[in-house]
Amino acid sequence: MSALAHAAEEFFAREPELSLAALGSRESRGALDLLPCGRGVEFLAAEEHGAWAQQYLTLNQHAFGPLGLPRWVLSDLYLLPSVVGLVRAPSRLLREDVQQKLALPPESLAIAAAYVAVPALTPGLFAGVSLLSFLPGAKASAWVKTLTLKMLGAQRLRGVTQWDSSAVRVHTRLGPMRLVGRAPGSHEYAERTFVYETDLRTEDTWARCMRRELQLPHTRRVRTDDASTLAALLDRAQGGEPLYLVPPGLDDGHVLVHEGAL
Question: Which of 196, 204, 217, 250 counts the most CB atoms within 10 A of its CB?
Fold first, then answer.
């Protein structure tokens, strides 16, 4: 058993009421590893499981408000080219506001966490799109992201996040985040947003990060509201300099930066 599979086994032993599913077009089933890290995944063909698609849509819109997902984007850009990886749990375990939103019986299975990544032009590279979690205290965010990427066979991940987002701590549980540069186009939060890349090809490193066992030095601590310094870091990254956010990534309002190769 790999180190990452062993870490997954420990997680599900602590959270025995959780289960995995993948929601996507029926044509995608054959391209997926439905036993990521040794954990069985139920495939839900979206053409036949509209209730799960509607639940995901409802929760995405609940989480993101004005930036919530339009129906056509869910169909065309999430479910058609990729899948939504799901961690499911009895609805009674979810955050209270989510329980009220879904209005399901307490023992009914509901989406507790979800992650979407879509294939990029570069073979083996996926682009992270959306991460949701409504399960207090379980650390399900990192596991739904990890197991979805394993289902997809991702070797590298590029994602977009904000310096001051608690999600930075989740993202560094998959490994050091190499700074790539600014988000392309006109992102709604462009002034505090950056693109990062994570190398997923070394499972031992991935497993150690999931357990918070990997210790990497940081050379700088930069406040998440220090816009000029953060912009200069992105200029350097876009110029080809290796710069990383190292685990845990975010600490007391500062990002932890390693300058140079790891």
Answer: 196
